[in-house]
Design a protein that fits this description.
Number of strands: 8
Distance between the termini: 35 Å
Largest sheet: 4 strands, mixed
C-alpha cells in the first residue's frame, strides 16, 4: 500500500486511493494510510478464518461503494473473496502474489519456491476470480533464487519487486492499457502491431 500511495503522489499518476480497509485492527496498512491522510477503516471480518462472513462482506461492499471505488486493490488481504463481492466488483478486483503464477499459489509462495528448488521466482499482479490465485495475469516480474537464500531474504527481494510492479500495473489499468481476452490480459502499450 505504501508503494501505491507513493506512486499516487507523483503528478503523472492516473489513479488515486479512495479508501483503505483492513480486516486486522492493528494492521500497519491503516497507519500508513492515516500518515498520508487517506481515509482508513478497520472492519471486523466475522467468524471465519479464511473468508469474510456475510455481514462483514456487506460492510466492506457498502464502504467501497460509498467511497466511489472503481477498482479494488488487494495488498496483504489474506481472505478468499467469493460470491457477492466478486459479482459487485466483477473484473475489478486485483491482487499481487509472491510467485510467478500459476506456480506456487496460496500461502508462503516464496517458501514453496525455495523448497521446490526453482532458480527463478517472482511476483504476479492478477485479477481475482472465484479460485485461489487463478485469475487472468496482468503483469509479472522475475526474481532470481540465490544459492544462499533463506525464506526471509527471498521474500524481501520479492517484496522490493512487488513495490515497483504493482503501481506500474495499476497505472496501466487506470490508463486503459490492459484489455482482458478470456484468460489473457494484453498490455496495449507493449503491443507491436
Amino acid at each position: 500500500m505504501a508503494a501505491i500511495a507513493d506512486a499516487c503522489a507523483q503528478s503523472d499518476c492516473p489513479f488515486e486511493i479512495a479508501l483503505v480497509l483492513s480486516d486486522v485492527a492493528e494492521a500497519g496498512i491503516l497507519e500508513r494510510a492515516r500518515e498520508r491522510s487517506i481515509p482508513a477503516k478497520f472492519i471486523p471480518p466475522g467468524k471465519f478464518r479464511t473468508k469474510l462472513d456475510d455481514e462483514a462482506e456487506g460492510v466492506f461492499l457498502d464502504s467501497l461503494r460509498q467511497a466511489g471505488v472503481d477498482l479494488v486493490v488487494l495488498a496483504g488481504f489474506m481472505r478468499i473473496l467469493k460470491g457477492d463481492f466478486l459479482r459487485v466488483f466483477e473484473g475489478s478486483v486485483v491482487n499481487i502474489h509472491p510467485s510467478l503464477l500459476p506456480s506456487f499459489p496460496g500461502l508462503e509462495a516464496w517458501k514453496q519456491a525455495l523448497e521446490y528448488g526453482v532458480k527463478v521466482t517472482g511476483c504476479t499482479v492478477h485479477f481475482v476470480d472465484q479460485g485461489v490465485d487463478t485469475g487472468p495475469i496482468i503483469a509479472q516480474q522475475t526474481v532470481p533464487v540465490l544459492d544462499n537464500d533463506t525464506p526471509t531474504t527471498l521474500h524481501e527481494r520479492i517484496q522490493q519487486v512487488e513495490s515497483e510492479l504493482y503501481p506500474a500495473a495499476l497505472a496501466a489499468l487506470a490508463r486503459g492499457q490492459i484489455k482482458v481476452h478470456g484468460r489473457h490480459c494484453v498490455n496495449l502499450a507493449n503491443r507491436q502491431d
